[in-house]
Specification:
single chain; about 250 residues; mainly alpha; Catalytic domain of cyclic nucleotide phosphodiesterase 4b2b
């Protein structure tokens, strides 16, 4: 089912090549990942969202599509045991300020380590001669993967001059409020038996602690397409509106 969903999302011109890339990533890394910590559906959702954003934003060239597909499928190869903003908030609400500070410091260390490891593993895969990836596409994808979570660290990345990277980051950060994302967060916290109310509450919390909070990473003169979040593409803002209607928040 995962593979069928993957191939359905891929542009026809790069379908076989990107499937081969995914197969290598799956065999070496993704299949060994704990799905409770990082579900395999995440990469497929990001791929689907990236292609939707690219189409809406007029990014239709073969090489830019290949870049977007590679980034979507390889950006999280460097596995980490995540500390979330909700973990930090929970510690503060419990009065454990020292614990919250430790978690915040750990989270700050995790992100660079995750990005560096993901970029290194992506470079290793994309350098395989049998995959025949153009070197400049490989290098651009690896560079972006090494920076893809910088907005979570307060850095205004990507710049507007790299609109494809803007779309890639938005596709990734919309996952926590998508119909699939909140369940992944609840499972990561070891929770089970949750219903729609719990899922909707998680989606709302993700919206506040991530999409709204990330807006503070950008200067005030930045142009946004959504009045509350950091989203800059019109399609990204439209997708968010769909998800908010779905979760009714």
């Amino acid at each position: 089912m995962l593979r069928n969903r993957l191939r359905a999302a891929l542009p026809e011109q790069v379908r076989d090549l990107v499937t081969a890339i995914f197969d290598v990533a799956w065999e070496r890394h993704l299949s060994r990942r704990d799905p409770a910590e990082s579900p395999h559906e995440h990469e497929i959702y990001v791929l689907e969202a990236t292609m939707r954003l690219f189409a809406a934003e007029g990014l239709i060239g073969l090489e830019v599509k290949l870049f977007g597909c590679v980034v979507a499928l390889l950006h999280d190869l460097g596995e980490i045991r995540r500390v979330t903003e909700l973990d930090i908030r929970h510690a503060r609400e419990q009065g454990d300020l020292a614990g919250a500070e430790r978690l915040a410091a750990k989270r700050a260390r995790q992100r660079p380590e995750h990005m560096i490891a993901s970029a290194e593993l992506a470079h290793e895969i994309l350098s395989m001669p049998r995959l025949a990836i153009p070197v400049h596409v490989r290098d651009r994808a690896v560079e972006h993967i090494g920076l893809h979570d910088m907005v979570k660290l307060g850095v205004p990345y990507p710049p507007r001059s790299d609109w494809a990277a803007v779309c890639c980051v938005e596709a990734d950060t919309l996952w926590p409020v998508s119909p699939e994302g909140p369940a992944a967060d609840l499972r990561r916290r070891g929770l089970g038996g949750f219903g729609r109310a719990e899922l909707a509450a998680q989606a709302c919390a993700n919206f506040e602690t991530q999409l709204v909070a990330y807006r503070n990473s950008f200067p005030r003169h930045e142009r946004f397409s959504d009045p509350e979040t950091f989203l800059r593409t019109s399609e990204g803002a439209g997708m968010l509106a769909e998800y908010r209607a779905y979760w009714e928040f």
